[in-house]
User: Which sequence fits this backbone?
């Protein structure tokens, strides 16, 4: 009986130790965006978490919420993404991110409001400069569709913050 209890205690201790090691390598962060113009407003929030395997590799997931209103046109986009980060040398970060968004768009015309709802995939390849917890860079959407994308063009600047 003592051997069984010792085995259970040892197994639980290993499990808790491994769980502690896991959470000590998880970093939380994300981004908040606001845009104003004469024609409207755009706001976004994207919380995310990554698992830092070592100093060079990390992978994680993100949620994304975006709202825009320009004149009488409205857009609501929500979804998620998975991303991988690679730092070949300390300040340089390469990234790949697959994003899937649900787009709910309302376009106001003189007579009726046109509604368009669809899924939009995006696959971003990026490069950035990292300093401590912040990375500044550019990313390119290789699946960019000028007719459906909620982004202005395929090449976009980004800022990533993880703690």
Assistant:
């Amino acid at each position: 009986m003592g051997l069984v209890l010792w085995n259970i205690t040892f197994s639980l201790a290993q499990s808790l130790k491994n769980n502690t090691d896991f959470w000590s390598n998880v970093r939380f962060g994300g981004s908040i965006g606001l845009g104003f113009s004469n024609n409207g407003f755009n706001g976004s929030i994207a919380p995310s978490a990554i698992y830092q395997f070592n100093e060079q590799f990390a992978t994680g997931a993100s949620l994304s919420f975006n709202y825009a209103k320009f004149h009488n046109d409205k857009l609501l986009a929500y979804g998620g993404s998975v991303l991988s980060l690679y730092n070949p040398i300390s300040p340089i970060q390469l990234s790949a991110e697959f994003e899937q968004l649900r787009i709910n768009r309302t376009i106001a015309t003189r007579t009726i409001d046109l509604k368009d709802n669809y899924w939009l995939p995006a696959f971003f390849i990026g490069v950035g400069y990292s300093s401590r917890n912040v990375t500044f860079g550019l990313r390119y959407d290789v699946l960019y569709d000028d007719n459906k994308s909620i982004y202005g063009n395929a090449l976009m600047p980004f800022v990533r913050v993880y703690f």
